[in-house]
Amino acid sequence: MALRRKKLHLGGEIERKPRSLWRDGMRRLLRNRAAIAGGVVVLAIALAAIFAPFIAPYTYVEGDVLNNYAGPSAAHPLGCDFMGRDLLSRLIYGGRVSLSAGIIGAVTAFTIGVTFGLISGFFGGKTDNFMMRFVDIMYSFPTLLLIILLMVYFKSSFSTVAVNPHSFRGILSSIDKSMGGMFFIFLGIGLTSWLGMARLVRGMTLSVREKEYIEAARAVGTSRFRILFRHVFPNILGPAIVAQALQIPGFILYEAFLSFIGLGVNPPTPSWGMMLSEGYQAMRSYFHQVLWPALAISITLFAFNFLGDGVRDAFDPRQTR
Amino acid sequence: MFEFIVRRVLWTIPVILLISSLTFVLMKSVPGGPFNSTERALIPAIKANLEARYHLDWPLWKQYLQYMKGFFTWDLGPSYTYRARTVEDILNQQWPVTIQLGLCAFLIALCVGVPLGVLSAVKQNSLIDHGSMVVAMLGVSIPAIALGPFLIWIFALKLKWFPVATWGTPAHIVLPAVTLATFYLARFARITRASMLQVVREEYIQTARAKGLREIVVNVKHAFRNALIPVSTIAGPAFADVITGSLVVERIFAVPGLGRYYVMAITNRDYPVIMATTLLFALLIVFMNLLVDLSYGVLDPRIRYN
What we know:
The complex is a heterodimer.
Chain A: H1 2-10, H2 13-31, H3 33-50, H4 52-55, H5 87-123, H6 125-139, H7 143-160, H8 168-178, H9 182-192, H10 195-209, H11 212-219, H12 224-245, H13 248-260, H14 272-279, H15 288-315
Chain B: H1 2-28, H2 44-53, H3 60-72, H4 87-122, H5 127-141, H6 144-158, H7 170-200, H8 203-210, H9 215-252, H10 258-268, H11 271-299, H12 301-304
Helix pairs in contact in B: 1-11, 4-5, 4-7, 4-9, 5-7, 6-7, 6-9, 7-9, 8-9, 9-10, 9-11, 10-11
């Protein structure tokens, strides 16, 4: 270790520093056993979701009326649902919906939030004032209600009414249909969850903007656009990604919640929230209908939370103790 | 302090305007009015009459004003699905149930979560600390839609301590309130613990100890009060989430509250009920946020003067 550190000293000072911060964080993260366990579980769930067609014993639509509410058996390890569909297969495919809602929702929110925050912080003045007041007002709108409203809007105006397939509306609607209703969930989550990110990025941009290297870049005549993308953006990227990753469990919850109240995926696409919603009605006699999806979503969130806590402890210096 | 309160109260006006207009515009821009059923087309004269009755033939801005006037005079007109009942009738009946449930859940979360966090921080790295943090981790990871069925199964179906569902006696409140409270109980515990641990390292705590104050006075009077500040920042959003969380919890436990009605209105596309309920939920949340912010100003004098 001592030898390597010496070698690194030979490298350029400017290039080494951010990497060592990153490495420091990684080292701390790898020492955190709970976080590693969480990471392994998340990875396993992600692999199962990606390779669902190869792992799942059945497809998520094929059902057998004779198997309605069937208990666990050799052919169906976890039993069957109210339409005789294999619960294990639906659970595995359901992981796709949950994980993609978490990740794509986060990416969408990240993109909007970072763009908004960068512009607001970098240009400052009236632009900043106006943009931040907008964020303030939106912040007072309860997120879940906003998502519900957007989903009602999307579902009623794109899915139930016949639309011209070649119009903008029609294209969005067919994208959503081909994704089993997931597209609008991503959109709903992304459009409502970027406010915190925008605030965070703006704050960081404001402080980065005053740094000497920005002044140096300006002095040599770099364009504003280039400063924004080459000098400001890379410097706020790390903390922003960490902050956004911490929100993934929240997005998974939103999806489950929406599917539970009937505003999420379209049947027969399986989602854990929808499976819970279908299962709880028959819960008295067939508890396994809710047991598996409830376990699946709890274990996933548990793993994400452990991983997230570890990542925050490792990369946020204020939190270390 | 007075100026701070006035500023904070005035701030709710643009918020309410935005929420109401956004709700209104979204619900109005859904294509196909309530009377354009494709299966059973109405005779044009009947349709025109119906639209006139619900003021759907007015220009949008006039409809908006009419709607806002209706909201504040509590005269919201008939529901589209239950033609015989007015929206305010429905709301008046469901509203107290949701408030009861929400307040119970919020109080459980606050009164159990915060002391748990303090206890964990004071006895850092003890068995109590580790135990309650594992419970808190479970709490933030098991969502209400998963926890509800488990609680019903264990406490209502197997042990028969509480009724399975519906509403009426105090025993009916317990399970849904606990389901609703768990997530925030856990969050309060985690945040209180973290913020207590941070405050305890401050110099004024050392000073207090150096003065020879008893440990309990240091912890409660000097540390706890300051540790509450981050807790109070999440208390507002937490209340909002508890209230909106009642959407699913009321569905699981068949509680006849606003949340269950809201979900039914969504399924039926009953726009007047959706709009009024959203606005009501939002107003309640804005009001709670206001209270929280004011309490924040009381807790932390620095806030009042920025």
